[in-house]
Amino acid sequence: MSLMSFHNKGETTVTLVRTRLQSDRLLIKGGKIVNDDQSFYADVYLEDGLIKQIGENLIVPGGIKIIDAYGLLVLPGGVDVHTRLQVSVMGMSSADDFHHGTKAALAGGTTMILDHVLPEPGVNLLTAYDQWREAADGKSCCDYSLHIDITRWHESLREELEALVKDKGVNSFQVFMAYKDKYQCTDGQMYEIFSIIRELGAIAQVHAENGDIIDEEQKRLLELGITGPEGHVLSHPEEVETEAVYRAITIAKQANCPLYVTKVMSKGAADTIAHARRKGTVVYGEPLAAGLGTDGSHYWSKNWAKAAAFVTSPPISPDPMTPDHLSSLLASGDLQAVGSAHCTFSTAQKAVGKDNFTLIPEGTNGIEERMTIVWEKCVASGKMDENDFVAVTSTNAAKIFNLYPRKGRVAVGSDADLVIWNPKAASVISAKSHHLNVEYNIFEGTECRGAPTVVISQGRIVLEDGNLFVTPGSGRFVPRKTFPDFVYKRIKARNRLAEIHGVPRGLYDGPVQDGIVSAKAAAPAPSSRITSCPGKISMPPIRNLHQSGFSLSGSQADDHIARRPAQKIMAPPGGRSNITSLS
Amino acid sequence: MSYQGKKSIPHITSDRLLIKGGRIINDDQSFYADLYLEDGLIKQIGENLIVPGGVKTIEANGRMVIPGGIDVNTYLQKPFQGMTSVDDFYQGTKAALAGGTTMIIDHVLPEPGASLLTTFEKWHEAADTKSCCDYSLHVDITSWDDGIREELDMLVQDKGVNSFQVYMAYKDLYQMSDSQLYEAFTFLKGLGAVILVHAENGDLIAQEQKRILEMGITGPEGHALSRPEELEAEAAFRAITIASRINCPVYITKVMSKSAADIITLARKKGPLVFGEPIAASLGTDGTHYWSKNWAKAAAFVTSPPLSPDPTTPDYLNSLLACGDLQVTGSGHCPYSTAQKAVGKDNFTLIPEGVNGIEERMTVVWDKAVATGKMDENQFVAVTSTNAAKIFNLYPRKGRIAVGSDADVVIWDPDKVKTITAKSHKSAVEYNIFEGMECHGSPLVVISQGKIVFEDGNLHVNKGMGRFIPRKPFPEYLYQRVKIRNKVGALQGVSRGMYDGPVYDVPATPKYATPAPSAKSSPSKHQPPPIRNLHQSNFSLSGAQIDDNNPRRTGHRIVAPPGGRSNITSLG
After folding, report:
1. DSSP label at A140?
2. What is residue B456's three-state secondary structure?
3. Could you give phi then psi for residue B42, rounded to 5 degrees?
4. Into which CATH architecture does domain A77-403+424-443 fall?
5. Do A250 and B208 touch (CB under 8 A)?
6. Chain segment B346-359, per-residue pLDDT in tens
7. Nearest-angstrom CA–CA distance, A388 and A378
8. A319, A347, A555 member nearest B533 (Cβ)
C-alpha cells in the first residue's frame, strides 16, 4: 500500500504500563496475518481501536509503539461464543464473574465473549437482560455481547423477543430441551419459539438433551444408591443428547429456522449434525474446549472434588475417542464454532451435591484455555491449518452471530482485536497458573503448543510478556443486528420455495356420514356419475358409490395420473431429508 | 377356550385333510412332502403317509404350502367420533382369509381414561361372535396413570395379552410424554410385554395442521403435508432412544417412510432391540394420490403416518424387508366408507384415518418383493407369518409348518396374476387403495383350523369360528437378550471416602467465604496459589486416592451394554 517506510524505532522504548494502556496507536511489524481464507505477511497499523492500515512500508505517525511480530502469527482475537459468567444456581454465583472471566479470556487470546443471560423462569427477559448488562458493563474487560435463554414459554414472549431484537441488539436465543420442570420446553413450544425467531431474523440456540429421560434416569440411579459424580454422566448418556439434537433439527427444519446446537459433547450428537447438514438443513454445532480437550473418564475419579469439577451438561463423554472425533468434525467444517461454556464453581460450591449428584452445580472452565486447546488438538496434530483455526475460534462465530467483519477478521476497518500467536510456545495448563477463581482446572497437566504472546483488545495491549493490563468495565457491549447473511440468505430463499398449495377441487357433494349413526354406512343411491371420469373404479351395485360428485366438469380428467408435476410437494432445497439414510 | 355348538362348515364334514404333492415352505427351508391335518393340527409331514381312509385329499401339484399369514396390525373395531370402520370382525376376517391370512392381531383401542379391561372384554366379545379366523389382541394404552398398572398386570397374567401400543402422536388425545413413555416402557418390560409404538411427533403435527388449515388447505393433501416423514423418523428415533436406555425391546408399527425405516435399520446395527412393521399400504402404493382431484379417492388414502409422497418409497421398504432390517408386515386395516371419510370434507384433520390391506397384504408382498427377486419364498414366509409369531410368542403354534402346529395352511400359487379392484374385494369399502394393481401370487386354498375356508375363489366361513389365541409374556425371541443385557449392564457407583471438605451454605450470600485450606492428604499435583480455596481431597480412608492420577481405571464399568454404546447415527 504505502511506498515509504516511516517510523522511528527510537520512540518504541516506552515501558511505562500506563503509557501502554493509553496508547491508541500501534504498529505490528513483520507478522504473518492469518484470516480464515488466507495468510500473508504484512504490517498492521491500529488507531482509535480500529485497524487502519494493512500492508508493507506503512506510513504511520511518529512516536507510536511498535510490536515486533517476526515469526509470529497475527490472528483476529478469539470470539468465545458461549460463556456463563453471571449464573446463579441455588443462590450461588459462579466463581468467575465478568471481571475474572474476561481477564482469563484475554489471557488466553479471546477478545470477545458472548455470554448467556439466564433469566429465572417467569422473570421478564428484558429485566434479566438489563441485570446482565449492568453487571457486564461494570466489570467486563473485553467486548461482549449477550445471548438470551428462554427459560419459560409465556404469552408475552413474542413481544419480549421483539423488543430485545429491535432495541437491545440481541439476535440469538437459547431454548432448553433438558432441565425438566424448570427450563424445559415441549416440542410444540419449541416450534412456536422457532417460528417467532425465524420471523425476527434471529438464531435459535438449543441445549439439546432429553430432559424427560434424564429425570427418570436420575431417579433410577439415586435409587440404586449411586450418588457420586459418576451418576451425572450415567444419567446423561450420550444417546439422550443425540436424540434431542435429532429432534431439535427436525423441529427447526419444520419451522424453517436456523439452528445452532450449543455444547456438542458426544460423537452421536456431532454425527447427527453432520448428517443433517449433508441433507441441507441450516444447522450449526458448537463443540466446547472441554469436549475437545479432555474426556469424561474423570467422573470415576476417587477424588470427589476432582470428579465434581467435570460436572457439566451435556457431560464430557466418557469415551476417550470423543475429543479426537469432535476435532476431526471441527476440522472438516461439520462443526463450526468453539465455545467454552465457561461456568465455574468452587469445590465448596460443588460440594452442595456431595450426597446427591443432581445437586452439583454444573459447569467447567475453558474460557482461558479454549484457543490453546484448539491449537494443540487440531492444528498441532495436523487436522487443520492456521486458517481453519481462525475460522473456528473467531470468524465463523462472527459470521453466524452477525459480528462480521467487525470481529473475526484482520482487515482495514475491523476492530483492533488482535492476537499475536506464537505457534511454538509450549506450556502446561495448571490451576497453579491459570487466571481463574477455581481450585481445579479440568485440563490440569495438558501440555499445549501454541499460545498468545501479545493480545490487543480495542487497540490496546492487554497482554504482553505474560502480564495482563486490564481494566474492569472497559469492555463494550456489542449489539448485533438481525438476519445475519451467513445464516439467513438461504432461509429466505427457502421461505419462498417452500410455499405449499392445496389441490383445487370441486366441492365434495356426496353423502356425509352423520357422526352418531350406526356402524354400517347407509347406502345412499349412487349419485349421477359424470361420464368424463375415466376412473377405473366401478362398484358392484350393492356398494356405496360417490367417488365423484363434481359440478365442475372435466375436473377429473387427469385423475388417473397419479403424480402431477405442477403440484409442489413441499420440496425444500436440499431435498426431503432422510437424515440418516444410507448412502 | 372351547367353541362348541357352532355349525360345521356345510360341505366339509371331515376334520381330516391330506395335502399331497406340495412343496412345504418354512422360513428356513423348503422341501417336498405331504401334509396330514387332523383336529385342527398338523399331524404328519412326510412322504407316503399312513392316513385313515376316506380323508379328503387336496392335490397341490407342486405348489407351495406355506404357513397361513399373520396380520399383526388390524383395527376392525376402531371407533372414531361415533363411527366404526366399515369392516368389522366378520367382514374383515373374511377378507383376511380370502387373502391367505389365517390369523390377525387386532388393536384394542380404549377411549382415554376408559378401563383397559372393560374395553378388552368388549373387543373380545365382538371378535368371539364375529371373527372367522383365529385372532389375538394388542391393547393400546391411550392414557397413562397409576391405576393402569394393575390392569396391565391383569391383562398379561390372566387375559393372554402380551403386547401394548403407546402413542407419540394424537396430541391431547392419546399422546404420551417422554416421561410417561419411560415409565410405561419400564413397567411393560417388567411384565415381559412387547412394546408397540405409533411413532409420529404429535406436537409438531398439531402445529403443522394449524398452519396448513390457516393457509386455507383443507383437502386430503393437507394430511400428508402436515405429517412430513421427518416427524415419523424423529419419533422413531426418540422411541428407540428411550427403549435403549431401559434396555427393552421396541416395535415400531406402521413404518411408512424411508427415513423412519433408516432409523430402525441404523439402530439395529448399534444393538438396541428394535423391530419395524411396514404395512401393505406402504409396500404397495404411495402418497401421490393425496393430490388426486377426486376428493373421495384422495381421502381413501388418509392414514397415519401417511403414505409417503415419494414414489420410490415402496421399493425401498421392500428392500429393507427383504434384508431383514424390517421384520413383519401388517395391514393397519381400518377402512371407512366415503360417506364416513366425508365428515372431513372441509377439514382434513377430521377425516377418519385408515386404509384397507388385510386381504391384499400377502399378495402385495409377493408381488413387490418375491416376484421382483428381492426376497425368496422363505423370507416371504418369515415376513408374513414366522417373524410375527416369534415376536408375539405364537411360535411354533403359528408361523410354521411342523408337526403339532396349528393347521393354518395356505396353498400358494406364485404364478397366478390377479388385478386388485374394489369390484371384487371382500371389504365393504368402496375404494381400494391398490385399485388396478396387477399382482403375481395369490392363495389357491386356505385352510384355517384344519378346515378349508377358501377354495376356487369361494369362501366357506362361519361367523364366530375364530378362536382367541392367548399369548404368554417374555417371548424368547426378544427377552433372551434382554435378560442377559440386564445382567451385563448393571450399574455401579464409585466407592469413595466421604467428602468432608467445606460445603457451600446454599441460602447464604452469593460470594462464598474462603475457608482455610484443610489439611491435605492428597498426593495431587494441584498446588494452587495461597489465595485460592483448596479442598479437593479430604478423605478419611487412606490410600483412596493413590490411583487418582490414573484417570481411566479398567476395573470400573462405564455402562457398557452389549452391542456397545450406541451412537445411533454415527458414521460408518
Report:
1. -
2. coil
3. -85, 120
4. Alpha-Beta Barrel (3.20)
5. no
6. 999 999 999 999 99
7. 9
8. A347
CA distance B70 to A8: 93
Q: Which chain B residues are within 8 Å of A536, Cβ to Cβ?
A: 421, 435-436
Interface membership of B471 toward A (CB under 8 Å) = no
Give the type of residue at B162: N
User: How far, in Å, CA of A509 to CA of A530, rounded?
Assistant: 13
Return d(Cα A175, Cα A187) in angstroms, integer: 11
Cross-chain Cβ contact A243/B421 below 8 Å: no
Chain-chain contact of A266 with B204 (C-beta, under 8 angstroms): no
**Around Cβ A25, how many Cβ atoms within 10 Å?**
18
C-alpha grid cell for residue B500? 468432608
Query: Cell digits for B59?
Result: 392335490
Cell matching residue B326: 424390517
Neighbours of B6 (CB within 10 A): 10
The chain-wide mean pLDDT, for chain B, equals 86
Q: In one letter, which amino acid is A557?
A: A
Other residues' Cβ atoms within 10 Å of the Cβ of residue B39: 10
Q: Cell 490487543 sits at which residue?
A: A456
A 87-126 residues inside an 8 A Cβ radius of B: 88, 90-93, 95
Residue A515: the pLDDT is 55
Query: Which residues of B are less than 8 Å from A242 in CB distance?
Result: 241, 567-569
CA dist list (Å): B119 to A316, B73, B79, B109, B140: 48, 18, 12, 7, 10
pLDDT confidence of residue B507: 61
Which of the four pLDDT bands, split at 50, 70 and 90, describes residue B499? confident
Residue A495 has pLDDT above 70, yes or no: yes
Q: Does B502 touch chain A (CB under 8 A)?
A: yes
Inter-chain CB proximity A215 and B428 less than 8 Å:
no
- Closest chain A residue to the Cα of B243, Cα to Cα: A213
For position A556, what pLDDT does the model report? 43
pTM as predicted: 0.81
- Parse chain A into domains and list their residue ranges: 77-403+424-443
**And the C-alpha cell for A215?**
429425570
Would you say residue B366 has pLDDT above 70?
A: yes
Give the model confidence (pLDDT) of B234-275 as tens digits. 999 999 999 999 999 999 999 999 999 999 999 999 888 999
Residue in B83, B60, B74 with CA at minimum distance from that of residue B103: B74
User: Scanning every residue of chain A, which has its alpha carbon at the shortest distance from the alpha carbon of B240?
Assistant: A243
Q: How far apart are CA A366 and CA A344, in angstroms?
A: 9
Contact between A320 and B499 using a beta-carbon 8 Å cutoff: no
A-chain CB neighbours of B558 within 8 Å are: 297, 300, 318
Judge whether B75 is closer than 8 Å to chain A, CB to CB: no
**What CA–CA distance (Å, rounded) separates A389 from A370?**
11
Q: Is the pLDDT of residue A10 over 70?
A: no
Min distance A233 CA to chain B CA atoms (Å): 9
Cross-chain CB nearest to A563 (options B217, B288, B492): B288
Condensed to tens digits (0 to 9), the pLDDT of residues A149-195 reads: 999 988 899 999 999 999 999 999 999 999 999 999 999 999 999 99
**pLDDT of amino acid A238:** 93
pLDDT tens figures, A263-295: 999 999 999 999 999 988 999 999 999 999 999
Q: Which of residues 362-421 of B touch A (CB under 8 A)?
A: 421
> Which amino acid appears at position B413 of this protein?
D
Identify residue A215 by its one-letter amino acid code: D
Is-contact A87 A55, C-beta < 8 A?
A: no
ipTM: 0.77
Helix (H, G, I), strand (E, B) or coil at B395: coil
B531 band by pLDDT with thresholds 50, 70 and 90? very low
DSSP element (H, E) containing A137: helix A125-139
Nearest Cα to Cα of residue B276 among B227, B228, B307, B320? B320
Q: Are B128 and B460 in contact (CB under 8 A)?
A: no
